[in-house]
Amino acid sequence: MKSSPAFRPVLVALAATLALAGCATNKGRKDQSYVARDVETLYLVARQTLEKRQYKLAAAQFDEVERQHPYSVWARRAQLMSAFSYYVAGDFNESVSSAQRFLSLHPGSREAPYAYYMIAISYYEQITGVDRDQRITQQALDSLGELIRRYPNTDYAADARLKVDLARDHLAGKEMEVGRFYQRQGLYLAALARFRTEVERYDTTSHTPEALHRLVECYLALGIPEEARKAAAVLGSNYPGSKWYQRSYALMAKKAPGQMAVAAGA
Predict the structure, then answer these.
(1) Is the pTM here over 0.90, yes or no?
(2) 212, 244 Cβ separation under 8 angstroms
């Protein structure tokens, strides 16, 4: 789990609203979270379970608050706490479901930004290596973008912007991974498509200098030195101190010396 300080104030604020008077304890008995109880007792039991770090059980108990008292103010709080509990338990799909259920019932709530944040980071936590399918990364990016669009001035949006950069870098890395594979197989047109996608869609990521160099390599392999020169010129203009520009410069000098003057930015 990638912890975030944004959780703590929300968790504390929700817990602080709980009225402690009149709550049952049921000492010496097994957990009775699925037995009909008053709403405050159910909520307090769930909160205490969460404090014990029994996250899956706490999530089920918060769900029980909603099941038994669906129209109470406690049910609304319990939905968010359920999403949080599932998140820290590592059950990200259930966290998304709880947060989405909250938004479907309370779209205009002041806690809505937090629900959108829970959805976004639950997807974000599931991002895998670039050698795996990246659909979940795109879901994370879309969810982060929606949070930023809807609530741009919140702390959640500020954290989301950082995660957007990382998610975009990850998607760019996937394009590079596939592009390099095609290039190794001699499938230069397919490789070009991947490297151009990186340059055009993810131009602010750390992979762009290499993508430009790979374009130079592929264009030269295809016998199109003019296009290779254009890619090298962009690389030299934007990343003149990069090792990738040095490699492109050396490659152009060897394979297309007639294009060197322009490629060097002259």
Answers:
(1) no
(2) yes
Calculated CA dihedral for residues 27, 30, 36, 39, nearest 10 degrees: 60
Q: Report the candidate in 181, 180, 186 with the shortest Cα–Cα distance to residue 210.
A: 180
DSSP state of 239: -
Domain edges within the chain:
207-266
According to DSSP, residue 35 is labeled S
In whole angstroms, what is the distance from residue 124 CA to residue 92 CA?
9
More confident residue, 265 or 84: 84
Query: Can you give 196-221 as a three-state secondary structure string?
Result: HHHHHHCCCCCCHHHHHHHHHHHHHH
Tell me the C-alpha distance between 43 and 62, whole Å: 7
C-alpha dihedral sign at 203, 207, 212, 218: negative
Question: What span, in angstroms and rounded, lies between the C-alpha atoms of 133 and 175?
Answer: 11
pLDDT tens-digit readout, 24-50: 333 333 444 445 678 888 899 999 999
Q: Is 219 exposed, middle or buried (0-12, 13-18, 19+ CB in 10 A)?
A: buried
Residue 180 CB contacts under 8 Å (≥ 6 apart), including other chains: 191, 214
Distance CA 144, CA 152 (A): 11
Three-state DSSP at 27 gives coil
